[in-house]
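Section: Multi-chain targets

For targets with more than one molecule, the full set of components is provided together so that the structure can be written out for the assembly as a whole rather than chain by chain. Components appear in the order listed by the source. The example entry contains two components.
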Amino acid sequence: MEAYGLSKWYGEVIGLNNFTLEVRDGITGIVGPNGAGKSTLFKLALGLITPSTGSMKGLGQVPWRNPALHSSIGFCPDYESLPDEATGREYLALLGGLHAMRGPSLSGRISEVARLVEMEPALDRRIGGYSKGMKQRMKIAGALLHDPELLILDEPLSGTDPLVRKELMDIIRRLHRERGHDVIVSSHVLFEIERMTHNVVLIYKGRAVATGDISEIRDLIDKHPHNIVIEGERVDALAKALLDEGFTVSVAYNQDRKGITVQVSRPDDFFNRLPALIEGTGCSVTKMYSLDDNLEAIFRYLVGR
Amino acid sequence: MDITKALTGIAAITRHFLKKLVLSRKVFITILVAAFVAAVMGYAGAQNGVGTSDGADLLDVLILFFFMPVLAMIYGTSLIRDEIDDKSITHVATAPLDRGVSYVGYYVPLALTVSISMVVVNAAGFLAFFAQVGLGGEALELWGEFTALVVVGSFVYSALFLAVSVLLKKPVFFGLFYAFIWEGFIGSLPGAIQKVSVKHYLRSVGSDWVDFGSIASFADATAPGASWAVLAALAVSLVALGALLFRETELT
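Its structure, encoded as tokens over all components, is:
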């Protein structure tokens, strides 16, 4: 997938803004907070909408008014799009018909993809009775049915419980490793993408703010101070000890005085040194979390705000 | 364009939406309309001195004048517009089919569903009336003629309301205006103005077939051949217009 100077406006709302990107083979993660432009990018890639300016190509072809391209792309949308009144098998048969698949080869393929996403036992149940996780699997099965070269999965993990997330992540990894599909998968949770691929594009407010290996992006992120909250007993001693460390930018007591917020310039050094500091000061930590797990905060760092 | 692929795609969409429409809650509206028409015609048929002409007039007013455009509007303005609004159209829009071809896949089940509904409503009214007046040869002939008229009308009105639902985000407002004001009122005015309604051409075709009631002596009727040509051209051009609009619509 290639995009050059791509912009899309919906009236006065900007969906994508001068967006440039080249997606490589394999699994690519598109990460960004809600409203960043991920779904707009996918709609442009599928030819559902047309760019306001710039150019977009999927598998070397312009998507708008190019239905033939859909033979090579499978799409799993982020919204509820399945017909509740149909069974899983009927839904897949509809998609097969749309791809000119018929007869025993279609029936065989339906069973194959249902097995792949572990939905074979539920194929003859009504979709309206499926759980969220089952619906996500069925959407992935629909995207896979015509054996596309490229799979575009828009937030396939959203709304699912941790167990289902893990299973879906395993399925997505297998689709590339065992079946050879190139996959573009979006999420607003960085660590989920990290579990599937190291090849990541970060989108924020319609722009690609960072592209490449996730470790390079982590390096970029790590150049900015991180805020970590520590709560527990005798944290004032820990606060004093932290102020002597080179990676500490600042330490502040929280409003409830139950804990401190530490701003650090090198999170890895902080986390490596922390156990020794806790032991040395005799404090007991009951809770610790990073305020910067919030993706929005990371993106603000990356765009220098 | 690969014709086999296109036909397979149209057949898949048609099967899916025919089932969806036939099993939808809108079927209850058809049942209610059929019951209403049956009640009205049943009551009329129970009176003394009524005959085939009265039955023809009732079918003319209740079905051709009123319920056919209304039912077509109810089914037609929601089918593709609901899919666009709730984004379930993605499956069709991301298939390797020209969107113009996919549009035909929406039109066919819509026209079939409206036709089936109208045939049912027509049959309910007919049976309620003529079961009392007499189910003779001329009554059955009348039933066949009105059945043919409602099928033709269903295909034309379906083409109109489906195209409108692609063009407008709130097609039901246009649909209500068209069904009640345009077809119901303008189409009933004397003189040339009624020629801008579908009903006029349906009644003109009907005046050539039906030998009973006011439709048989439709004074302002357009020649049957010209009426057929107008109805066919209208249906084809509206399907083509809808397909073109659907092709160019951004599915946000």
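Residues 162 and 215 of chain A are 24 Å apart (CA to CA).
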